[in-house]
Specification:
Strand content: 25-35%
Number of helices: 9
Distance between the termini: 33 Å
Structural class: alpha/beta
Shape: globular
Largest sheet: 10 strands, mixed
Length: 291
């Protein structure tokens, strides 16, 4: 078989769990032709808040908005590939940098989950028209759920790529007591990304505590739109079980969990990108048909 599909009853929803191997994706005809005409960088001005750098394509709805990961920006391979794909279909697309990241204003060390959530809501409110498909990578997957809870009328569907929902807080809580005490005393937590041992990020202790206010997986999550969760089974930074936990908590009955058997955290291999664009294309087709 090209893919292995099983269905499992998890809490409130019947979740389709799909494990996809590379040879399946090599058989898929490319969904789009790359056009290298790029959108230009612009800046969203907000009263008393840092300017956000963004790039936007105007087009049909549902539009697509890409939310990058914690250590990434709007120029990631996934973001650029999605822009090219949406351009080929004539659908609108927005990619942007969070406060303190990429070309946006602000100081990274002063950022929190709450501040970056405001960034996402600013983009939805000021740069998009009508319901959008949010594609959240890693940390962006957490933010897309927070945005869906705050602006349900603006959300057509969600696509998580190694969605790190609640992950900063849950990981911190699993640390030994003496390590947590040391982090509290120093006022910072140094995190080494396992997919890139050279990447060490300093997270202020106050940001970890602030993030506790935005955890959502301790109770049912009232998000009812279509949800697709793509995760690599070789992901050492955010275990794929997190996507299963998310699928179990959301109230939506249209939830697919797609596992890449050999996929790692970043999911930037050619087959990973094909799967992502295929997933977005399928949702656009589904939403357009229903509309």
């Amino acid at each position: 078989m090209a893919s292995h599909v099983c269905r499992t009853l998890c809490g409130r929803a019947l979740i389709k769990l799909q494990i996809v191997e590379n040879y399946f994706l090599r058989c898929v005809t490319p969904l789009y032709t790359v056009h290298r005409q790029k959108s230009s960088v612009q800046f969203l001005e907000r009263p008393e808040l840092p300017k956000l750098a963004y790039q936007r394509l105007k087009g049909k709805n549902p539009g697509v908005v890409f939310l990058p990961g914690f250590a990434s920006d709007m120029n990631s391979e996934k973001a650029v590939a999605l822009e090219d794909f949406c351009k080929s279909l004539g659908h609108s697309f927005v990619r942007f940098d969070y406060t303190g990241r990429g070309m946006s204003e602000g100081v990274f060390e002063e950022c929190t989950v709450g501040k970056w959530k405001k960034d996402v809501l600013s983009v939805l409110d000021d740069l998009t028209d009508g319901p959008q498909i949010l594609v959240g990578s890693s940390f962006g997957g957490w933010l897309m759920f927070l945005a869906a809870l705050a602006r349900p009328e603006k959300i057509a569907a969600l696509v998580g790529v190694a969605a790190a929902v609640d992950h900063v807080v849950s990981t911190f809580k699993q640390l030994p007591v003496e390590v947590k005490k040391e982090i509290e005393e120093k006022g910072e937590w140094k995190i080494t990304m396992k997919h890139n041992k050279e990447s060490v990020y300093t997270v202020p202790y106050h940001a970890v505590k602030e993030a506790e206010n935005h955890c959502i997986l301790s109770s049912p999550v009232p998000v009812t739109c279509p949800i697709r969760l793509i995760h690599g089974m070789k992901d050492e930074d955010v275990p794929w079980h997190v996507s299963l936990q998310v699928a179990d908590c959301v109230l939506s009955t249209d939830v697919d969990v797609i596992l890449r058997k050999h996929g790692q955290h970043r999911l930037t291999e050619k087959e990973d990108i094909k799967l992502l664009t295929y997933t977005v294309d399928d949702l656009i087709d589904k939403l357009t048909t229903l509309g």
